[in-house]
Structure formats: structure tokens, C-alpha cells
Design brief:
Blueprint (H helix, E strand, L loop, with lengths): L4 H13 L1 H17 L9 H8 L4 H8 L5 E6 L14 H11 L3 E7 L5 H4 L8 H16 L6 E5 L5 H11 L5 E4 L10 H12 L5 H11 L11 H11 L15 H17 L9 H4 L2 H14 L5 H11 L6 H10 L14 H7 L1 H11 L19 E6 L2 E6 L23 E6 L2 E6 L9 E9 L3 H8 L7 E5 L4 H4 L8 H9 L4 E5 L12 E6 L16 E5 L4 E4 L3 H6 L19 H6 L30 H5 L3
Parallel strand pairs: 1-2, 1-3, 3-4, 9-10, 10-11, 11-12
Antiparallel strand pairs: 5-6, 7-8, 8-12, 9-13, 13-14
Helix pairs in contact: 1-16, 5-12, 7-8, 8-15, 9-10, 9-21, 11-14
Length: about 625
């Protein structure tokens, strides 16, 4: 099947825009690779002895020479977070598999893994976005010892996978395999959980009822079962061909999970410089792989957070992706999945209905994804097959010809919607994004007065005091990357969802983020420029009428132009935040790029081209489009 003309057009646009930066990145890979395929061969005897001092006799014997591939394991393990707890035993499995295949493996380092579900609405959330860049730096430190011929990355959740991926791309000459842990088994239905949250927001459920509901939902090891940022990460990694086909949604306790982990180690050895199929990650992640990731995100109604993260990931590979590119892809890729919050199903049901194999086959056959070189020997078509345990060994079967549940997964010939899950909004307030796949068509536009606040907690207080208008747009500003680290504002979802259920028309406009699990009511998020940089959102005043039209891609304040232009930015009225480690991230807040440039607070990409994005100024992605002509 030939590629869809619009997908080919946006791919060519990205390639053209990225020509110089990508060339510099690939030159860096070639230089690193050309210095020494087996990098530890260049280490001094003292260096090397330090590197294998704690290994057993057999591993030491192998590492003394140059003929044994050595895998570096970078892990996000901790035992507080359900998604990462299963990784406790993965290094032992990987070491055993590597030895059986004639190689070795070492844990190169650990990276932090924080959970927005734990920090939601708390001061710690202000460290969340920046944790991605810390993870990227920690990954680089782990790999800096030059002991490794390939690397395995153990991570699942929100900022962890993008951070690991950015770090891996900084070592683009090393082959890489990402290894997930899988989702927890189903708990109570997500819709039921949301209903209890809304009853609690209305004062009709006790805290004991709420906690019982939450504990029944988040009940065991594995990722949360809704289709938020964590599970979107897994789909995007498969769409780029960076983890073994079908590994995303196999539960942690299933025997197939360990088999896939062993197979991941074996494949990494084969792709190493000492294997027979050298495939460095920096060569695999090109503009086609980035487009595949965004197409998969749109087709499945995935997380809004990736409109930030994948700009940063692309930049790490020398590729300039913009929100305009994402919007173009979304308008040409149909919505093929309904998974909570876009529907009632959880990711286990999505997997059972056909999952990634079914969706990817439909996209490939429709020309909406590129067939490209991946970690699988036979390219993207390998990702249209499902893993199976056959007599205790790993095998694959073609994706089902038909969906097992068309309420959850549909073919491209009969999509839920003709377009994808996200939309770019433009107007006199700047540029923002909205997730429309979870919002019913009758709620996708609103024209209502603004309720302007700088502290998210104020909205609930106004509601309790019966001070909110019948219909309104909640404007929550000073929530951008430079103001306070761009926390998620999911804590507002129960109230706004409750009010919408009552027949009131409500929406959210913010320079902050929403959870990947958010939906239901219209939310224009990631608004750029942010209030902290005197963005237009800071000119809004209480009662200004705002028009938000997701279908038309419009977000604007209906204020007289002369009055609007004469207004100055309002000061931040939010109380001084608790520290909770914020002082350690003051540099990040000062130097972070805008949301439409990936909100990077670190240099990312070829060192000689760090000035491609000037982090000290706001730039619209449009300037790159101007250079495309």
C-alpha cells in the first residue's frame, strides 16, 4: 500500500525542515561508532577492572576480552509505583538470558520514576515535567562508562519513557530495546471510578467511599488500566519499532511477560556491534518513525502529554516536529479505538479486542503509517502480529482479521471518527491543544464568560460558595513551564465533569497540562505563550467572553481589539508555593523552552546546533513552517 499523500507530505515537510540538524546528529553517531565498535576495548586496564569488579567469574572472563556483547540495563525500578514494581526481577532475567546467548548484562544505572497519580494536586507535581529531563540526564550518566554494546531500557510511565528515549538517543550509536512491564489486571470499571469522584466533588460520597473506589481501581502491580500517558507511551514505542511486537499490554504475572523480557535481551545482543544485525537507535528513529508515533497516538486517542514529549524526543534525534505537523496528522488519521477516557474499555479489553497489532495493520494497509526498519528483523509488518507462547517458546500469530469488539477497536473502513484524537487551536490567545476524542460532539464548542484564577484550588472554593456562573470557561493561568513547571490540573476534572453532567456548559483554558486520562469536557491546554512570559492569557479579565471551537480549531477572547491590545499582563495572584524541592529546579524554570518546543530544560541534539531553538525566547512553530517553502 502506498503512503497516504498527506502523511507523505507532512513527513517530507519534517525531513526538509530538519535537514541540517539531522545530518549533524547522524554525523555524531558515525563519529562515535567509528571510534571503536566495542567501546570498552579502548578502556585502560584500570578502567576495565573497575567496570567488571563486582561480576562473577564467568562474566569477568567474558568481559576481559572483546568478543562478548555486554548489555547495559537502565532501570526505572522502584517498589512504590505499581507500574515499575515488576522491574525488580527483570535484571536477573536479562542477565540469565544474556549469558545463555553468549553475552553479559549489567545494570548500568537507575533513573527516578515519579507518578502524577500520587502527586496530582500536590506541590510535588511541580517537579513532574522536569523529571523527564532529569531522567534523560541520568540515562546519559548510566551509559557514560563505555562498557556497553547495546542497552535495555526498563520504564513505563509518563515522563519516564520519554526521558529514557531522549537519553538513549544521546547515545544513538548504541542499539536499544525498550522493555515494558505491562498493565495491571482490570479493577472496577473506569467509568464507575469517575462517577464516584464526581459524587465526592458534589459532596454526595464520603472519603471512605472514594478511597475504596480508588483502591479497587488501582489494586496491583502494573500500569493503571486507563489509556493515559503511560499506556500511550507503550503504543508509541511499538509504532516506532523500539520494543518487541505486542509487548505493551501483557500483564506482569503472565508467563509470556518473562518470555518477552528474555527475547528482548536476546534481540539486543543480535543488534549489538558484536552481533550479526547491527541497528543503532539513532538510525532507526528518523522522521518516519516520529510520524508513525503521532499517527498511532491519533488513531488510538492517546495522551495530550505527548504533544510536548514527542517534540522533545524528535529534537533529540535531530528532527524538528511541530504542533502543526501533529494537527495535520490528526486531521488525516481516523480514530480506531475507544479506550477510557475515550470510551468505557480499559487497556486489557483493548488488547483482547485486537490491540496494537490490529490498529497497526489497519494503519499500514491504509497508508497511514510508514513501513520502516525497526528492532524487529522484518520491519513494521512484524508489529501486526501478536506474541504467543507455543510449547513454552515465543511465537507470533497474525492479528485477527476482524475486531473482537467493535465498541473498542474498529477497522479504518469503519472508524469511530474520520479524524484523530487531538486538535490544534489558534486565535488571539495564542496556540493550544485540545483532546476531542473524549469529548462528545455537542460539547466541543462553547462561548461563555471567563472565570479567571491563578490557583486551581480557587475553582472548587467558588463552587462551594455558589459563585460560579451557570456557563463559564475556567481560565487557570500561571501554570506554564516557566511559572511553576507546568503541573497537571486533573484535580479540576471531577468538578467540571459534574457541572457538565448537570447541563451547564463549561470548559477549561490553561497554560498548564491535563492528565492523559482527562477528557469529557473541552480543555484548551498547553496554551503558548504562557502567562509567565506575558502571554495573551495574562490579559484575560473576569467576565471576558471566550470562544472555544474544537472542530474549527479556534480559541479567542471576544474583546474589542483596541482594548485587548492596550491591556497589560495581570500579575500572578497565586500564593507562594511550598518548596518541596522546587528550589533545585529554579534553573530549569528559568531556561525551559515553551510547550510548543517540547518544554525542554536541557540542551538536546547535536552540540554544534544548540541554537536551533533559543531557549531564552518564545518562538512559534510557525517560523519553521515559513522555512519549508
Amino acid at each position: 500500500m502506498s503512503i497516504h499523500p498527506k502523511i507523505e507530505e507532512v513527513t517530507a515537510r519534517i525531513r526538509r525542515r530538519s535537514t541540517q540538524l539531522r545530518a549533524a546528529y547522524l554525523q555524531g553517531i558515525a563519529a562515535a561508532d567509528g571510534q571503536q565498535r566495542v567501546h570498552r576495548a579502548a578502556l585502560s586496564c584500570g578502567n576495565l577492572a573497575h567496570g567488571f569488579a563486582a561480576c562473577g567469574p564467568d562474566d569477568k572472563s567474558r568481559l576481559r576480552g572483546d568478543a562478548t556483547p555486554n548489555l547495559g540495563i537502565v532501570t526505572a525500578y522502584n517498589d512504590m509505583l505499581s507500574a515499575h514494581q515488576p522491574f525488580e526481577h527483570f535484571p536477573a532475567i536479562i542477565r540469565d538470558a544474556a549469558r545463555a546467548a553468549g553475552g553479559t548484562a549489567q545494570v548500568a544505572g537507575g533513573v527516578p520514576a515519579m507518578c502524577d497519580g500520587v502527586t496530582q494536586g500536590r506541590p510535588g507535581m511541580e517537579l513532574s515535567l522536569f523529571s523527564r529531563d532529569v531522567i534523560a540526564q541520568a540515562t546519559a550518566i548510566a551509559l557514560s562508562h563505555d562498557m556497553f554494546d547495546a542497552a535495555l531500557y526498563l520504564g513505563v510511565c509518563d515522563k519516564i519513557v520519554p526521558g529514557l528515549l531522549i537519553g538513549a538517543l544521546a547515545f544513538g550509536h548504541l542499539p536499544a530495546v525498550f522493555v515494558p512491564a505491562g498493565p495491571m489486571t482490570p479493577g472496577i470499571p473506569n467509568k464507575q471510578k469517575a462517577e464516584v469522584r464526581e459524587r465526592y466533588a458534589a459532596g454526595k460520597a464520603t472519603r471512605e467511599e472514594l478511597l475504596a473506589s480508588e483502591a479497587a481501581s488501582y489494586h496491583g502491580a502494573g500500569t493503571c488500566t486507563f489509556y493515559g500517558t503511560a499506556n500511550s507511551n507503550q503504543v508509541l514505542l511499538e509504532a516506532m519499532g523500539l520494543q518487541l511486537p505486542g509487548t505493551s499490554f501483557v500483564n506482569p504475572e503472565q508467563p509470556l511477560r518473562e518470555t518477552l523480557t528474555r527475547a528482548s535481551a536476546e534481540r539486543a545482543l543480535q543488534m549489538s556491534a558484536l552481533g550479526d544485525d547491527y541497528r543503532p537507535i539513532g538510525q532507526l528513529v528518523d522522521e518516519r518513525a516520529i510520524v508513525n508515533a503521532i499517527a498511532a497516538l491519533m488513531a488510538t486517542g492517546g495522551s495530550t502529554n505527548h504533544t510536548i514529549h514527542w517534540l522533545a524526543v524528535a529534537r533529540a534525534a535531530g528532527i524538528l516536529l511541530t504542533w502543526d505537523d501533529i494537527d495535520t496528522i490528526s486531521q488525516n488519521v481516523p480514530l480506531l479505538a475507544r479506550v477510557y477516557p475515550n470510551g468505557d474499555a480499559d487497556v486489557n479489553r483493548f488488547h483482547a479486542a485486537g490491540g496494537t497489532a490490529f490498529v497497526f495493520r489497519e494503519l499500514l494497509d491504509a497508508g497511514l503509517m510508514h513501513d520502516l526498519k525497526t528492532i524487529a528483523a522484518d520491519g513494521m509488518r512484524a508489529f501486526t502480529r501478536e506474541p504467543r507462547l507455543l510449547d513454552g517458546k515465543l511465537g507470533y500469530a497474525d492479528a485477527a482479521a476482524q475486531s473482537a469488539d467493535e465498541n473498542v477497536v474498529r477497522p479504518a473502513s469503519n472508524p469511530f471518527e474520520a479524524q484523530g484524537g487531538l486538535r490544534l487551536l489558534r486565535g488571539n490567545l495564542g496556540r493550544s491543544l485540545i483532546k476531542i476524542s473524549a469529548v462528545k460532539p455537542e460539547h466541543r464548542s462553547i462561548e461563555a464568560p471567563a472565570v479567571v484564577i491563578d490557583d486551581p484550588k480557587v475553582l472548587n472554593k467558588l463552587h462551594k460558595e455558589n459563585l460560579l456562573p451557570q456557563d463559564f470557561v475556567a481560565v487557570v493561568r500561571y501554570q506554564g513551564p516557566r511559572a511553576n513547571g507546568m503541573p497537571e490540573l486533573h484535580s479540576l476534572a471531577p468538578l467540571l465533569g459534574l457541572l457538565q453532567n448537570q447541563g451547564r456548559r463549561v470548559a477549561l483554558v490553561t497554560d498548564g497540562r491535563m492528565s492523559g486520562a482527562s477528557g469529557k469536557f473541552p480543555a484548551a491546554i498547553h496554551l503558548t505563550p504562557e502567562a509567565h512570559d506575558s502571554g495573551p492569557i495574562a490579559r484575560l479579565r473576569e467576565g471576558d467572553v471566550i470562544r472555544l471551537d474544537a472542530e474549527a480549531g479556534v480559541l479567542e477572547a471576544l474583546v474589542d481589539a483596541d482594548e485587548w491590545n492596550a491591556r497589560e499582563a495581570a500579575a500572578n495572584t497565586a500564593p507562594a508555593p511550598l518548596d518541596m524541592g522546587r528550589n533545585l529546579f529554579a534553573f530549569n524554570r528559568r531556561h525551559v523552552a515553551p510547550a510548543d518546543q517540547g518544554a525542554l530544560s536541557i540542551s538536546c541534539g547535536p552540540p554544534s546546533h544548540e541554537d536551533v531553538w533559543d531557549y531564552s525566547n518564545d518562538h512559534s512553530a510557525n517560523e519553521y513552517q515559513t522555512n519549508d517553502a
